[in-house]
Structures are given as C-alpha cells and as structure tokens.
Amino acid sequence: xxxxxxxxxxxxxxxxxxxxxxxxxxxxxxxxxxxxxxxxxxxxxxxxxxxxxxxxxxxxxxxxxxxxxxxxxxxxxxxxxxxxxxxxxxxxxxxxxxxxxxxxxxxxxxxxxxxxxxxxxxxxxxxxxxxxxxxxxxxxxxxxxxxxxxxxxxxxxxxxxxxxxxxxxxxxxxxxxxxxxxxxxxxxxxxxxxxxxxxxxxxxxxxxxxxxxxxxxxxxxxxxxxxxxxxxxxxxxxxxxxxxxxxxxxxxxxxxxxxxxxxxxxxxxxxxxxxxxxxxxxxxxxxxxxxxxxxxxxxxxxxxxxxxxxxxxxxxxxxxxxxxxxxxxxxxxxxxxxxxxxxxxxxxxxxxxxxxxxxxxxxxxxxxxxxxxxxx
Length: 376
Ligand code: GUN
Ligand code: ZN
Description:
This protein has 14 helices and 14 strands. The protein is an alpha/beta fold. The strands form 3 sheets. The chain has a 6-stranded parallel sheet with strand order 8-9-10-11-12-13, with helices on both faces. A 5-stranded mixed sheet has the order 3-2-1-4-14. The two termini are 18 Å apart.
C-alpha cells in the first residue's frame, strides 16, 4: 500500500445541491492499493490507520481527482485553434474535411495516439469521446486508450445526410459497424453526429442499438447554434423542437449526454430533467464558435444534470481546469448571472462527468473503493 501525502481536494457530493461539498485537506493522505483508493483524509489519521504503508511525500503540489471530459472529438486534435467561424461554416470548411482524412487508418491511428497523450498530459483520465465516421479509426481510438490506461467511452459517429458525402453511411451498414464495435469495446456510446446529419432511418438505428443494449451511453449535439436549430426544424417539420427529434426515437434517458444546449426552451429543460439526461457544457467552444452563453442558472433551476466538456476542436484545448475557469467567466456575464464556487468548478471538472456516465461508484472522487484516478 502507498500513501500519497499532499494537499488534496475532491467533491464527493454535489455542491450545486449541498453546501460544504468540498473536501479540502491542507495536509492530506491518499492511501492506494492495487489501483484503488483505500482511504482519503488528513494525513496523520490515514498514516495512523496504515502505519506500514509506504509514504510518498508530494507536499510541493496538489492532488485532485483525474479530470472527466464529457465531450471531446478525437478526429479534431489537429484543427484546434481555427477561430473566426460559426458552427456550420466551421464544420463545412475546416472540420469535416479533416474528419474525412480518417478514412486513412494509419493516419487515424497516429491521431488516436496523439489524442490520448493530450488527454493524459492535461490530467484527464476519463472522457466521453466523439469517435470517427470510420469504424477502423474509431477502433484505433479504443485501442490507444487501452494502451494509455484511460477510461474512454466512444462510438462510431453516424451521419447519412447534410455532411460531406464521404462521411455518410447507409443506416444498415452503420448498424452492422456499431454492433461489431460494441461487441469488442464495452464502453460504447451510440453517437449520431447531430439531428441535422441523421435521417429518420439513422435515428431508428440508434434506437435499435439502445434497445438491444440498454447499458450503452447515447451522445450527440443539441441546440448549439441558431442556424443549426432552424435547419433542424426544416428537416423535421413534425418536431415541436430540437429535443423532440431525439425523444420521438426514444433516445433521451438517464444514459444520454447531449452537448451544448445553449438555446434551450423551458419546455426542453423540463423534459431533460424529467428524463434525467445530462448536458455536456462546453464554454470555450460556445465562445470560440460564437454559439452563445450557456443558461446555466436555468438548467440548475430546472434540475438538469450538467457536466463539463472541452469540445476539442470547437473548443480551445484539452485543459479541464481552463474549461472550468471559462465556465466561471461566462456565467459571470450571463443574462442570469451566476458565480460558480471553487467546489462547483472542481465538481464540474470531475465527479459531474462520472455521474453523467453513471460511473460515480467507479471514479470522480476519492471515496474508498474507487479507482485511484488522480492528477498531481
Ligand atoms: N455539431 C455537429 N458536429 C459538431 C462538432 O464537431 N462540433 C460541435 N461543436 N458541434 C457539432
Ligand atoms: Zn462537439
């Protein structure tokens, strides 16, 4: 057994619901064995309980739980920094041409290695990752994550209209590719790119996959950009709003993580809360692409779960501390301004993601029995 001695902070409870949710230990001890947390508390108490453990003195720094990125795109690692666009132009001119390059499996595999190294070097240990439109490229991400020891949920990105033709797949081929990927990689997320790029037949494939495998995550984009929302309304004239498109196919529930939701009506917030779905809030991306300011106070009032995502490459980098800072900055100037506390920022960057993915008993804080995922 090892005891790591350092300043330690974590949020084992939800600081949006409870005060005193931040555990901050100025001289803390984190006892770990076999990759699991055995105890976390004041150093003197932990050392007294486990007097024979090896102590590693790390008092020059801080230990935090490994960060959890709830929304990040693996094929976009090389297009970071493309400023000056709005969502649909950015997709068409910059992003989708790069994503088409992942048809080359050797290139995709190189990007996958680069991508997981970037996550790890920023202290991210768990992430929900948008894969590639190509099955082999998506498999290379899972393989790279396994080699790097990261907990990655991902899936084949699905589209069959409104994007570059070489990224489209027929729904029956998409079904077969998803099936063979999810049989190999259990941390699988059904991942239509967004309603704009999915026909009803493709959304039906998503519904079938989730019905057949109820443990899977579901992730996509929603209500990010006003032009996107207008286009979705034209493609699905029967839908009362954007969320309704996904709801009609039975895609919204406790395992759903939807990115952005910048432009959300009260009705949609109420339905998301009722379904216990989560929003991946991506404040750097929302600012960089000019999408808008996330109405966090309205989400919290409605009781919608929120986690934090970098949205690389719409976002500005892999750092989850920077992402939490951007959330703080944007909420200061939001229409319904909101001052995030340190506990809330840390929670958003860590445990909130674990709750969104339903793995809060596995990671996200330092309660005994959890995986010893930490950043120093
Ligand atoms: N909507 C559809 N695709 C994307 C994407 O790659 N990034 C973002 N931010 N929004 C999207
Ligand atoms: Zn995204």
